[in-house]
């Protein structure tokens, strides 16, 4: 029956599985083995996946071509293939069906590797690697190793595949987690504020105005974390040094006398 | 409620309330240790001179300080009733908790205890591990609960209290439950105990004045901490109390001095002004969405915070003169408030400092949209409500309520083209001399604010008619909000009022000789350059504030007991 | 797939203000800008876009055979008369539903809205009238192919201006959810406004160098997205005087050269790109489908209003796929629930496309479009794009 409905959007997958495009924070690698020939290389101030020749790998974000084609995995066909070369998967690799929202068969069985970092789908030139489920992997014709010249091109369709190391397992209290900041993991509190401590042996007067990372007075610490109950408010210490917080996770805001906590 | 869990909870609650009446087994004697956390109270409990219920903010701050800010407090708080023309702080001295309110506290307590003893967290709160997690372990329970109890009750627990809670933990661990279930139960009971929910002001004989009483050391620690930082005493303060330092005026002064210099004073100052300015009214403020469609929830929630930020900046951060609070052009603004002030807010998130232009009528506390909106009707401004608020809250001059038979038609008819402005409408209303008597007190202070509408937005005209912002206060005529702010800043009534309020806030009572105390405080306040830090230090250290004049109250459990027949063995 | 969630967006159900449209029987006359506000002291004027949707003109002669048919109607047309009559009987409704929804699927289970190019269906009914809103994008009052355009028929604007290029409206103007009825725009207007309110498509304008709202030969216009959510009142109307920041994404910060003549701001042709993420639903942070408004040879025409707002048209050539992005993203739901015959829609757009002609095939890949835009005063903080670090 006709209903007064202009559009029906099928939204799929929580954001975590989708992230990679240039305007979203890159997702951490799962740590699983890389496809043969793929490695990680530092280009400028970031680490990216590269092919066997050291050339930057790009993901063609299938979300970004939605509405420009009916079958997203095959969007880069024809002329496009003179510019972009699919990262071919071995001929015998098990091929995962494209997700139905990208033109795949909605009745196709879901394979166990479907949620892995690196899967194989049928691309414009045969089986090709796909990273984080939505990024068909390509290299750009003529691009020299060690360069990223096509970041975000064509309305965020093309995005370099950034390598983000898997988050370290940490043993910490009070909602402390590790967050990737400028390519390395730093500890943040439950609100995402960076945790810092003083440089050198003693704190001096500099940290008198810093915001303490509060612990409960009744807490006893754990592992490398201890509680200092004697200040205005009980404070966490990490490896015997008092912990403070700064607002936000921008390392540029860390005072000169302080350094971030590294897990 | 039904089922075993609920029975258990009710049992915990009642047991908590009845503790001191219980016959208990001896608490396990822990090895002699210099750590005060592991020692029971050495001296007998003092006489109860007063009890003040924790406010919601105090409860939350206390839990965060004791257990850590990652322990969440979820639940609704039964409000403390404000006595007419007084502070919530004074209302707290006479506040009971209804059965429904107690149920809320019980739910919160169980939730907090469950978080503390959750598998991934409990090791951080325990100096020991139970011999068998499936069975009671009185020794480990005692060693865990004693330091927690010291923080929750703001003094070491008595031997009897320790015994009772340990017993409760043991019983809670039985019946197929484990050790940690028992610990949760015992701690939840501590959290609904009056020893935690009320700041119990216990008294001891005053050696300097035989026959009279003074607050004892631990009561003084709580007084200082909740007054100055709005939270539970920290370890240093508890230790000073344990060591008897707080009954020594010199040592008390040194400690208070240190506390008012701490950045934590901000919390105390916020709480004081939120109480003095009736900020609880923000929770129920509603605006007519037809008249003020742009008054959205983001705006509503930003108004009180803006006022508090301005107050803290002027009085704490800058250590400025209290009188300048009525004239300063500095405030803070966020994106939600931008349109109301027609101001550009560059920062995408949070608050940024903002300074009104010279000549802008926005200066001072009374020019903040929060004050103007709070003391307005839902669909129109109100010079009378604003004037009354200034009189009562900022000058401590109570205004009588209007008689019941007043005809408000003239003032309410905001669409009447013949009477386009509030001033004209009020003049018509005041042709009745009964009304005029009171309006003479309020309106000259409210009419200067008429260029701000019912949500505090600026307007040049009302119903296309120009707005006359003339006002008069203590014989001086002035124009607009800026003139009003200057008039208030110049008045002794303003500074006397805040000084008197600070005393009430600290003690929960009116001074015996109200006028003399307020005047004396005002003189000291003046000598200190009207710095709020100095005023708080003064009320935190004045001997009169620690004197107990009223006869001691009955024991708390008698006041709280719901049934005199329940004993510890009566577990349902 | 077990992780997939289905969020259904019923744009028609959103409580929004109704736009008042130009209608055929009452073409609005251009009014002289009266009592305009004074120009800003610093020459800067900011605005937040409060309405951005296809410019609708409901001419009486537009759709003489009725609105564009639904998939159900088109399916019935494929049946012999007798069978059609039988299927329309109430008792056979279930069978009819199964059959017309089945008509939305092709080989390999592909659906008609995700793959409209794979279905060979005749174009949907198109606008036959002569008047529509829009701008003259090819600077030509005729309709012959020239440069990289394809042959097309021009509209006349509601105020009588010749040479209006708006083939998008010609192709889509008989679709019920676009056209709407009786002066009220279709559901697409409400839906797109909701995207502005939610912050998903937030657009801002920052004019600088404005010396007069009547006439000024040299004005710079920054037309950009903002990541900020709209500040709206209880009726979902944009509140004037709110603050927004220009997006950090330099691709969506378009710097245009403009001039003001008789209270009307126009800009020189440029490539305008703006974000158009499709992620509206109960969770605002879902950034699933990303797309762009992508207008080539685009220009703005805004008229200053006495209340401080501006109203006008954004025109340009956009890829034909973008016009039906919402339906395409909607996939089978757009076909079987909203009832779109996306293949007929695609065929119409392809036939009417008049820009970006492919030299090899002669087929045009973009279509001239007119979007109606309104904006209210706002404080806009510009953000220059980060300098691109050379990494080649």
Describe this structure in words.
- Chain B: Residues 362-462 form the DUF1588 domain.
- Chain B: Keywords: Signal.
- Chain B: Residues 215-342 form the DUF1592 domain.
- Chain B: Residues 52-117 form the DUF1587 domain.
- Chain B: It comes from Sphingobium scionense.
- Chain A: Residues 1-21 form the signal peptide.
- The complex is a heterotrimer of chains A (263), B (572) and C (392).
- Chain A is mainly beta.
- Chain A folds into 2 domains: 15-160, no CATH class; 177-260, no CATH class.
- Helix content of chain A is 5%, strand content 26%.
- Chain A is built from 3 helices and 17 strands.
- In chain A, strands 3, 4, 5, 6, 7 and 8 form a 6-stranded antiparallel β-sheet that branches. Chain A has a 4-stranded antiparallel β-sheet with strand order 12-16-11-17, with no helix packed on it.
- The longest helix of chain A is centred in the N-terminal third of the chain and has 4 residues, at 15-18.
- Chain B is of the alpha+beta class and 572 residues long.
- Chain B folds into 3 domains: 4-217, no CATH class; 270-489, no CATH class; 492-548.
- Chain B has helices spanning 4-17, 56-67, 88-91, 99-116, 138-153, 159-173, 179-191, 194-197, 217-228, 235-242, 249-261, 265-276, 297-317, 338-341, 369-374, 383-394, 409-412, 422-429, 433-446, 480-489, 492-507, 514-527, 532-541, 543-546, 556-560; strands at 47-53, 198-205, 213-215, 330-333, 352-355, 461-462, 465-466, 470-473, 476-479, 547-548.
- In chain B, the strands form 4 sheets. A 4-stranded antiparallel β-sheet of chain B has the order 1-2-3-10. In chain B, strands 4-5 form a two-stranded antiparallel ribbon.
- Mean pLDDT of chain B is 84; it is low at 1-34 and 556-572.
- Chain C has 392 residues and is of the alpha+beta class.
- Chain C has one domain (45-381).
- Helix content of chain C is 19%, strand content 25%.
- In chain C, the strands form 2 sheets. Chain C has an 8-stranded antiparallel β-barrel with strand order 2-4-5-7-8-10-11-13. Chain C has a two-stranded parallel ribbon with strand order 1-3.
- In chain C, a hairpin with a 5-residue loop joins strand 10 (292-304) and strand 11.
- In chain C, helix 1 (71-77) packs across helix 3.
- The longest helix of chain C has 12 residues, at 187-198.
- Residues 1-20, 26-30, 280-288 and 387-392 of chain C have low confidence and may be disordered.
- The chains are: A mainly beta (263), B alpha+beta (572), C alpha+beta (392).
- Chains B and C meet through loops of B and strand 6 of C.
């Amino acid at each position: 029956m006709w209903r007064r409905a202009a559009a029906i959007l099928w939204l799929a997958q929580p954001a975590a599985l989708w992230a990679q495009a240039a305007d979203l924070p890159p997702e951490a690698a799962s740590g699983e083995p890389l496809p043969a020939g793929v490695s990680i290389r530092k280009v400028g101030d970031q680490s990216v996946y590269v092919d066997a020749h050291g050339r930057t790998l790009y993901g063609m974000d299938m979300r970004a071509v939605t509405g420009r084609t009916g079958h997203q995995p095959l969007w880069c066909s024809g002329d496009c293939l003179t510019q972009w070369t699919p990262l071919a998967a071995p001929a015998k690799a098990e091929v995962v069906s494209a997700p139905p929202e990208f033109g795949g068969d909605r009745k196709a069985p879901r394979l166990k590797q479907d949620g892995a970092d690196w899967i194989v789908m049928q691309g414009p030139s045969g089986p090709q690697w796909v990273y984080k489920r939505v990024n068909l992997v390509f290299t750009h014709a003529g691009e020299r190793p060690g360069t990223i010249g096509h970041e975000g091109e064509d309305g965020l369709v093309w995005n370099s595949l950034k390598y983000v190391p898997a988050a370290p397992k940490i043993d910490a209290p009070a909602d402390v987690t590790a967050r990737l900041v400028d390519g390395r993991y730093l500890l943040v509190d439950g609100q995402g504020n960076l945790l810092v401590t003083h440089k050198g042996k003693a704190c001096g007067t500099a940290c008198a105005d810093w915001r303490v990372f509060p612990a409960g007075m009744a807490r006893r610490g754990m592992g490398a974390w201890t509680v200092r109950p004697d200040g205005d408010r009980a404070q966490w210490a990490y490896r015997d040094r008092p912990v403070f917080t700064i607002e936000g996770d921008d390392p540029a805001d860390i005072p000169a006398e302080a350094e971030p906590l590294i897990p | 409620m039904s089922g075993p869990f609920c029975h258990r909870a009710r049992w915990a609650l009642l047991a908590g309330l009845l503790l001191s009446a219980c016959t208990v087994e001896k608490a396990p004697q822990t090895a002699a240790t210099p750590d005060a956390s592991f020692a029971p109270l050495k001296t007998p409990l003092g006489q109860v001179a007063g009890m003040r219920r924790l406010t919601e903010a105090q409860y939350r701050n206390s839990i965060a300080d004791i257990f850590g800010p990652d322990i969440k407090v979820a639940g609704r708080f039964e409000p403390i009733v404000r006595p007419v023309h007084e502070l919530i702080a004074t209302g707290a001295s006479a506040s009971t908790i209804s059965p429904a309110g107690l149920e809320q506290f019980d739910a919160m307590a169980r939730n907090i205890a469950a978080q503390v003893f959750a598998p991934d967290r409990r090791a951080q709160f325990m100096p020991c591990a139970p011999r068998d997690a499936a069975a009671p372990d009185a020794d480990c329970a005692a060693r865990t609960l004693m330091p927690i109890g010291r923080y929750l009750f703001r003094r070491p627990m008595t031997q009897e209290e320790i015994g009772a809670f340990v017993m409760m933990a043991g019983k809670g661990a039985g019946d197929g439950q484990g050790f940690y279930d028992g610990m949760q139960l015992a701690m939840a009971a501590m959290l609904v105990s009056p020893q935690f929910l009320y700041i119990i002001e216990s008294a001891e004989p005053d050696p300097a004045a035989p026959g009279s009483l003074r607050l004892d050391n631990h009561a003084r620690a709580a007084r200082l901490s909740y007054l100055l930082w709005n939270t539970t005493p920290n370890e240093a303060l508890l230790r000073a109390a344990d060591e008897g330092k707080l009954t020594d005026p010199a040592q008390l002064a040194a400690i208070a001095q240190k506390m008012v210099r701490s950045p934590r004073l901000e919390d105390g100052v916020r709480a004081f002004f939120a109480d003095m300015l009736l900020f609880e009214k923000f929770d129920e403020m509603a605006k007519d969405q037809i008249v003020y469609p742009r008054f959205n929830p983001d705006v509503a929630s930003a108004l009180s915070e803006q006022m508090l930020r301005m107050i803290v900046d002027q009085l704490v951060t800058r250590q400025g003169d209290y009188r300048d609070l009525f004239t300063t052009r500095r405030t803070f603004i966020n994106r939600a408030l931008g349109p109301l002030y027609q101001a550009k807010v560059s920062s995408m998130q949070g608050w940024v400092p903002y300074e009104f232009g010279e000549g802008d009528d926005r200066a001072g506390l009374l020019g903040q949209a929060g004050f103007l909106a709070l003391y307005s009707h839902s669909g129109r401004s109100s010079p009378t409500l604003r004037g009354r608020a200034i009189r009562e809250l900022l000058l401590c001059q109570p205004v009588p309520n209007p008689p019941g038979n007043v005809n408000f038609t003239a003032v309410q008819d905001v669409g009447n083209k013949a009477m386009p402005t509030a001033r004209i409408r009020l003049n018509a209303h005041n042709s009745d001399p009964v009304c005029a008597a009171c309006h003479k007190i309020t309106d000259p202070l409210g009419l200067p604010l008429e260029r701000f509408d019912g949500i505090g937005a600026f307007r040049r005209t009302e119903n296309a008619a120009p707005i006359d912002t003339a006002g008069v206060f203590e014989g001086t005529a002035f124009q607009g909000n800026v003139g009003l702010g200057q008039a208030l800043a110049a008045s002794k009534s303003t500074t006397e009022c805040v000084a008197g309020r600070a005393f009430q806030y600290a003690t929960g009572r009116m001074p015996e000789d109200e006028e003399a105390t307020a005047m004396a405080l005002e003189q000291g306040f003046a000598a200190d350059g009207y710095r709020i830090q100095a005023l708080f230090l003064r009320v935190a250290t004045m001997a009169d504030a620690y004197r107990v004049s009223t006869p001691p109250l009955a024991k708390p459990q008698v006041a709280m007991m719901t049934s005199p027949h329940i004993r510890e063995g009566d577990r349902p | 797939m077990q992780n997939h969630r289905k969020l259904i967006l019923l744009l028609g159900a959103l409580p929004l203000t109704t736009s008042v449209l130009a209608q055929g029987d009452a073409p609005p006359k251009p009014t002289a800008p009266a009592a305009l506000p004074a120009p800003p002291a610093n020459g800067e004027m900011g605005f937040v876009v409060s309405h951005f949707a296809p410019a609708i003109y409901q001419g009486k002669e537009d759709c003489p055979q009725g609105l564009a048919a639904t998939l159900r109607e088109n399916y019935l047309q494929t049946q012999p008369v007798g069978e059609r009559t039988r299927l329309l009987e109430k008792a056979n409704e279930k069978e009819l539903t199964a059959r017309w929804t089945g008509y939305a699927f092709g080989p390999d289970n592909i659906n008609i809205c995700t793959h409209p190019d794979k279905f060979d269906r005749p174009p949907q009914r198109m606008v036959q009238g002569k008047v529509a809103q829009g701008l003259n994008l090819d600077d030509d009052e005729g309709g012959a192919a020239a440069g990289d355009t394809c042959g097309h028929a021009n509209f006349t604007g509601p105020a009588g201006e010749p040479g209006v290029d708006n083939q998008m409206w010609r192709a889509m103007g008989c679709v019920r959810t676009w056209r709407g009825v009786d002066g009220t725009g279709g559901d697409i207007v409400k839906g797109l406004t909701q995207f502005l309110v939610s912050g998903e498509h937030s657009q801002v304008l920052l004019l600088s160098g404005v010396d007069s709202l009547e006439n000024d030969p040299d004005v710079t216009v920054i037309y950009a997205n903002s990541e900020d959510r709209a500040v709206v009142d209880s009726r979902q109307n944009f509140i004037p005087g709110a603050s927004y920041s220009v997006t950090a994404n330099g691709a969506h910060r378009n710097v245009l050269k403009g001039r003001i003549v008789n209270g009307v701001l126009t800009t020189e042709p440029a490539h305008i790109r703006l974000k158009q993420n499709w992620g509206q639903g109960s969770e605002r942070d879902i950034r699933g489908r990303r797309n762009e408004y992508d207008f080539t040879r685009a220009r703005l025409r805004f008229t200053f209003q006495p209340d401080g707002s501006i109203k006008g048209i954004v025109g340009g050539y956009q890829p034909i796929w973008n016009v039906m992005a919402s339906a395409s993203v909607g996939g089978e739901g757009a076909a079987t629930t909203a009832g779109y015959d996306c293949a007929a829609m695609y065929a119409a757009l392809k036939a009417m496309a008049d820009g970006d002609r492919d030299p090899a095939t002669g087929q045009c890949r973009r279509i001239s479009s007119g979007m109606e835009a309104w904006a209210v005063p706002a404080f806009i903080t510009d953000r220059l794009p980060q300098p691109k670090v050379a990494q080649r």
